[in-house]
Amino acid sequence: MGNFLSRFNIHLNTRIDQREVYRIPPHHKCRNCGQGCDPSKSENTCVNAKYTRTGTKDQPAVYRAVVPNNKINWSTSYEYQPVEFTSEKVRTSTKEYVDKDPRDDPKVEIPWNLDDRLCDRRSYHGPYKVVRRVPQNPCGRTGLTGRGHLGHFGPNHAADPIVTRWKRDQNGQIMVHPRTQRQILEFVCILRKDTNEYAIPGGMVEKKEKVTDTLQREFHEETLNFPDLDERSKHNLLATIKDVFENGGIRIYCGYVDDPRNTDNSWMETTAYNFHDGNNEHLALIEVHGGSDASKAFWHDLGSETPLYASHADFLRKVADIHNAHW
Ligand code: BGC
Fold first, then answer.
1. For 70-121, how does the pLDDT look when each residue is reduced to its tens digit (9 = 90+)?
2. Packing angle between helix 211-223 and helix 231-246, nearest 10 degrees?
3. CA 192 to ligand 1: nearest atom
4. Cys-Cys crosslink for 182: which of 1, 210, 238, 326, Cβ 3.0 to 4.6 Å?
5. pLDDT tens digit sequence for 114-160
């Protein structure tokens, strides 16, 4: 197995669950409007309104209190009037894996900053503060309190598999981008059903699940939707994915993400891994077809030209750097 994988430039010995602190990515998308506002400006750069819309395409509008960029930090004093919001679906959920609100019931005790086996509540950035019985977003004010659309207070963990190959012409030659003169990568991209944005096919770590398993499960659910495939081909396809995903990959990022669902008490953290097939030997040969939360899945050129969901462009830029490819 070792030789098989090293032939494909897959780094062995990469441990997936190892906790390392990564730099928190810059906010390209304004916390207020979700657009690409200039985060270096101290004023509200996006809107004049006191409250701005948040949420996703299929969910009712929720308005966040506007937080000027120079007031995001908790240590800056600010007359702050956030909006409290936890979606109906989250509030009324009876699933064991969805948190109860400790502010509603003094008997609810949640093991903050610990892995209670059902759910890993540790942040990749170290212990977070718990204020008035609920965690405080380590990146600052978001204009919303409560859980919004997220099931957990504190970190909500996701995993993002970035599957790449070289873009080749009909003769199998790797194509070079005319602007940067660098070779072009392609990655498996999806169109998210909720926001209609291009994204990496990632998803939430489920109850008791390991990040390694989430990476495989999400890739499978969102990009390998072939209901008519015969049993043998299905088996071979899954065996390839399992081999590659379980034996390596390059860790690209692990930590907080600037996700539109984040609130002052609940936020997204992800682990992004790159699985690259430089020689067209395994992953590069698979066809993809959207399923689950993805309305489409396709191989797409990797480059700064494509706007992507949340912090996904940061991850892809790093992948391009690692392979010395076009960005
Ligand atoms: C997505 C991941 C993403 C994470 C944080 C999840 O819903 O599926 O791809 O990285 O949210 O934004």
1. 888 899 999 999 989 998 899 999 998 899 999 999 999 999 999 988 899 9
2. 140
3. 8
4. 326
5. 998 889 999 999 999 999 999 999 989 988 899 998 999 999 999 99
Residues 6 or more apart in contact with residue 183 via CB below 8 angstroms: 166, 167, 174, 175, 176, 177, 323, 324, 325, 326
Q: Using a 6 Å cutoff on CB, does residue 202 contact ligand 1?
A: yes
Q: What residues form DSSP beta bridges with 297?
A: 190
Q: In whole angstroms, how large is the CA radius of gyration of the chain?
A: 21
Strands (E), the chain: 51-54, 62-65, 83-86, 130-131, 134-135, 144-148, 154-166, 185-192, 198-199, 203-204, 250-256, 266-276, 294-301
Full-model pTM: 0.82
DSSP state of 249: -
Q: How far is the CA of 226 from the centre of ligand 1 (A)?
A: 23
The residue whose C-alpha atom lies closest to atom 7 belonging to ligand 1 is 203
* CB 199 near ligand 1, within 6 Å: yes
Q: Report the residue among 54, 160, 192, 263 best suited for mutation to probe ligand 1: largest number of ligand atoms under 8 A from its CB.
A: 160
> How far apart (Å, rounded) are the C-alpha atoms in residues 82 and 66?
8
Type of residue at 273: Y
Q: How many CB atoms lie within 10 A of CB 274?
A: 25
Query: Is the Cβ–Cβ distance between 186 and 167 less than 8 Å?
Result: yes
Q: How far is the CA of 264 from the centre of ligand 1 (A)?
A: 18
- CA of 309, closest atom in ligand 1: 12
